[in-house]
Amino acid sequence: MKEEKQAILSVNNVVMDFKIGGKSILSKKKTLRALNDITFDLYKGEALAIVGESGCGKSTICRVAMRFYNPTSGTMTFENNDIHKLKARDLKYYRQKVQMIFQDPFSSLNPLHNIYYHLERPLKLYHPSDKVTMKKQMDEYLTLVGLVPPEEQGSKNPHQLSGGQRQRAYLARILSVGAEVIFADEPTSMLDVSIRLGILNLMNKLKKENNKSFIYITHDIATARYFADRIIVLYAGHMVEWGDVNKVIVNPKG
Ligand SMILES: Nc1ncnc2c1ncn2[C@@H]1O[C@H](COP(=O)(O)OP(=O)(O)OP(=O)(O)O)[C@@H](O)[C@H]1O
Ligand SMILES: [Mg+2]
């Protein structure tokens, strides 16, 4: 799934094998091929949905991109640099620009600290400035994600927020780090149906108005169609369909 445009993130023939079993002397280690020849590009300001049944490899793509694993073969590149060969400064830059949002809004924030603390730390680390400027920036991020009034919401601890508000706070955090590409692994599946749309609309705004790029992982074809521009359907680690979201969903191969 490649086009002529310049990709921000590129996945080239990625294969990911896991060794499983082999713990006892009687059982032999087996290889499980979780990803097989995965190839796609992600462009600036677009959302690419990856859909498929449980165990088809969706989260493995994220984990390889987050460098939890090196691919067995193939490469992933960010701004034309091999993600798995980055060193020092380039690695820090990558960790800043490519971020992930998780399914569970309860585990992604530190329960001991308020929301301001979660934004202040990355700002100090990546964009240090004086206190007044940082406070202004934090309030801008909180407002951008709809946590208003920022003074009130920023002073709350995670347990004082709803699941949807925590996802918003987490998005504010990764924006304050400097995220340009966001891997969203089922970001709304643990939320009440009534607040899912709000999070999708927020991601849509970040895509359209702030030019952020998303890999949106979901089981839910309806939300993929709502939010994504293009889609990949995975089956048992293989890409079985891909292309423009409306074409693939309205006119599937089989
Ligand atoms: N570290 C690992 N070691 C061994 N096998 C793994 C590992 N991580 C994932 N797998 C296997 O790889 C396959 C893909 O897993 P993955 O978590 O990517 O699926 P998924 O599409 O995200 O599923 P779900 O929709 O349930 O989240 C599964 O068969 C899983 O058991
Ligand atoms: Mg998963």
What this model shows, in words?
The structure is a single chain. The chain is α/β, with parallel strands linked by helices. The chain has a single domain, classed as P-loop containing nucleotide triphosphate hydrolases (Rossmann fold, 3-Layer(aba) Sandwich), CATH 3.40.50. The protein has nine helices and ten strands. A six-stranded mixed β-sheet has the order 6-7-8-3-9-10, sandwiched between helices. It has a four-stranded antiparallel β-sheet with strand order 2-1-4-5, with helices on one face. α7 (193-210) links the parallel β7 and β8. α3 (115-126) packs parallel to α6 and α4 (131-144) crosses α6 (163-177). The longest helix is centred in the C-terminal third of the chain and has 18 residues, at 193-210. The model has no long low-confidence stretch (mean pLDDT 93). Magnesium ion (MG) binds next to α1.
Name of the level-1 CATH class: Alpha Beta
Mean pLDDT: 93
Strand order of the largest sheet: 6-7-8-3-9-10
Percent of residues in β-strands: 25-35%
**Given the helix and strand composition, which structural class is it?**
alpha/beta
Our measurement of the CA-to-CA distance between the termini, rounded to an integer number of angstroms, reads: 19 Å
CATH superfamily: P-loop containing nucleotide triphosphate hydrolases
The CATH topology name reads Rossmann fold
Radius of gyration: 19 Å
